């Protein structure tokens, strides 16, 4: 079975990342994943990295069957990487974003569970 997945990525400098109780997370691998919405029926995700020195990371996007859909190797101090995924081709599967600090070997794994629902709203207004 061949699964087509469109992955586009964009990099930009990051100025800050979420802070927990006034402290940043473990400095060895500070990364945060956000879902930004859709763009022409493709899901857009953002990975924000924050480190005090230049660090090399490996990002793997895989499905629930451990099939690696995309691998990205990154290097930088503080930056943001956006991913555009064609999730319609994947169907209803879990996705995993696995970020590894290449120097320390530490990993952060995010699980993405896609819920699709249809909402219909009816508005009735009395005119007279």
Question: Would you spell out the secondary-structure blueprint of this structure?
Answer:
Blueprint lengths: L6 E7 L16 E10 L2 E22 L4 E18 L9 E7 L5 E6 L16
Antiparallel strand pairs: 1-4, 2-3, 3-4, 3-5, 5-6
Question: How does this model look, in words?
Answer:
Helices cover 0% and strands 55% of the residues. It is mainly beta and 128 residues long. A hairpin with a 2-residue loop joins strand 2 and strand 3. The chain is elongated.
Give a quick set of tags describing it.
128 residues; 6 strands; Immunoglobulin-like; 6-stranded antiparallel β-sheet; disordered N terminus; mainly beta
C-alpha end-to-end distance: 60 Å
Biggest pleated-sheet summary: 6 strands, antiparallel
Could you state the CATH homologous superfamily?
Immunoglobulins
Alpha-beta classification: mainly beta
What's a quick, concise take on this entry?
This protein is mostly beta strands and 128 residues long. 0% of the residues lie in helices and 55% in strands.
């Amino acid at each position: 079975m061949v699964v087509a997945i469109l992955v586009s990525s964009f990099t930009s400098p990051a100025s800050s990342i979420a802070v927990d109780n006034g402290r940043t997370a473990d400095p060895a691998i500070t990364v945060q994943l956000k879902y930004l919405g859709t763009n022409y029926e493709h899901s857009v995700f953002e990975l924000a990295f924050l480190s005090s020195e230049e660090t090399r990371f490996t990002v793997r996007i895989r499905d629930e069957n451990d099939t690696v859909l995309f691998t990205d190797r990154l290097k930088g101090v503080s930056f943001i990487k956006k991913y555009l995924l064609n999730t319609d081709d994947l169907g209803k599967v879990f996705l995993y974003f696995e970020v590894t600090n290449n120097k320390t070997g530490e990993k952060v794994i995010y699980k993405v569970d896609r819920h699709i629902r249809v909402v219909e709203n009816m508005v009735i207004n009395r005119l007279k």
